Amino acid sequence: MHKPLLATIFLALALPSAALSGPTVTEVTAALDRARGASDVAAQVAAIESLASGCKPADYPMAETQLARAYYLTGEPEVDGARKAGYMDKAIAAADRALKADPANAYALYWRSMAKLQKADVVGGLSALSLVKDALKGLEKVSYADPEYDDAGACRSWGKVLIEAPSWAFIGDRKKGLSLLLKAKDISPRSLINRLYLAQAYEKNGKDKDALAELAYIAAAPVDPAHPKDDADIKDEAAALARELN
């Protein structure tokens, strides 16, 4: 297993050498792109916090954006509700700092919105509904500002909420959700999570044949060596849905 890039960089920060410098935003972003699992991301958080607190003003908004992303990725698989909510609060706070410095930062808005969706799952009730509505507004903005970001993450997540939310919440809209997930697939057709959510949307709209076609694609697709566990989990969920539809 590779040694996390930022973990190495963070250790180097403690060395008394004028030639050494802290990680750049580019290095932070690349390290998070390569991270395999929450433990890998968590090992990098301290370095990203150091970067955000000491970088040049021009780099500050994106440094805080990557910190929001790191907190989100660390907390997303957390099973303890209180701990998950704590990470999401940190992600939201970091994104808010980025947006205060750069209101047009679509990437900070994306991770803020994603963190609010995760927190909504934890808190429940009317508080959750408020969080979801705010998150959807953010995802809609990101879907126009940078529809390709995170493999069409804004369209994917927005569409997923619309197909899953109950109609009484005045959020659910299965037809619009299907349209958004078709767009996500068009933008990033190799993304297995896009294909899975699209299959679920087809099933919700009574289009089982189309759903099975997406599930067959997932079953035949190779596993991404950079994220084998994620793809394996997606394949398992797709196989379970295929069994229900056959």
Descriptors for this entry?
mainly alpha; 12 helices; 76% helix; 246 residues; Serine Threonine Protein Phosphatase 5, Tetratricopeptide repeat; globular
Describe the structure in brief.
The protein has 246 residues and is an all-alpha fold. It has twelve helices and no strands.
How would you describe the overall organization of this protein?
The chain is mainly alpha-helical and 246 residues long. The protein has a domain at 1-128: Serine Threonine Protein Phosphatase 5, Tetratricopeptide repeat. Helix content is 76%, strand content 0%. The protein has twelve helices and no strands. Helix 9 (174-187) runs antiparallel to helix 10.
Mean pLDDT: 87
| Biggest sheet record | none
CATH architecture of the domain at 1-128: Alpha Horseshoe
Low-confidence regions: 1-20
**Residues in β-strands, percent:** under 5%
What is the share of helical residues?
over 70%
Task: Quickly name the level 1 CATH class of the domain at 1-128.
Answer: Mainly Alpha
DSSP helix count?
12
Do you know the CATH topology of the domain at 1-128? Serine Threonine Protein Phosphatase 5, Tetratricopeptide repeat
Class based on secondary structure composition and strand pairing: mainly alpha
Q: How large is the radius of gyration?
A: 19 Å
Principal-axis shape equals globular
Beginning-to-end CA distance, first to last residue: 39 Å
Total strand segments:
0
Element order, helices and strands? HHHHHHHHHHHH
